[in-house]
Amino acid sequence: MTNLGISGETPFFAIYSVPLQVLYKVNFWEKELIAEDFLLFTKCLVKFNGDFQVYPFFGVFEGDAVIADDFIEEVIGQYKQLQRWAWGGVEAFPYMYKKFFIEPAGKRFLYASD
Fold it and tell me: What is the pLDDT of residues 16-62, one digit of tens each?
């Protein structure tokens, strides 16, 4: 999510904090989605007409560790985790397509860098 909002080379993972007021304005998360963070960022960007910034939230965490009884099970577990992350982009695409390519208000984002 924050890759889209931060310029530069800041390494990070899907850990974020969002003010409750912002969540209320965008009707909270989509609880049926796997990677709701990407869609939440997109919803905020559209809701606030591009006036939405993301700031790094630095902290120590181990969010991507897969633990299993043996090496093969760990490899399988990591593969399944990567699949879940990949589905996040697929799930958010219909919303993004509608907001950025179909609705007139969203088309301005496509030409903002021109």
Answer: 788 999 999 999 988 777 667 778 888 888 888 888 887 777 766 55
The CA-atom distances, in angstroms, between 26 and each of 17, 40, 42, 100, 110 are 15, 8, 10, 17, 21
With b for 16 or more beta-carbon neighbours within 10 A and e for fewer, the 40-57 pattern comes to bbbbbbbeeeeebebeee
Contacts of 42 (CB under 8 A, 6+ apart): 92, 95, 96, 99
Domain boundaries, the chain: 2-110
Those residues whose C-beta lies under 8 Å from the C-beta of residue 12, and which sit 6 or more positions away, are 2, 3, 56, 57
Matching residue, tokens 């996040």: 88
Q: Give the pLDDT band of residue 108 (cuts 50, 70, 90).
A: low
Please tell me whether the overall predicted TM-score, pTM, comes out greater than 0.90 for this model.
no
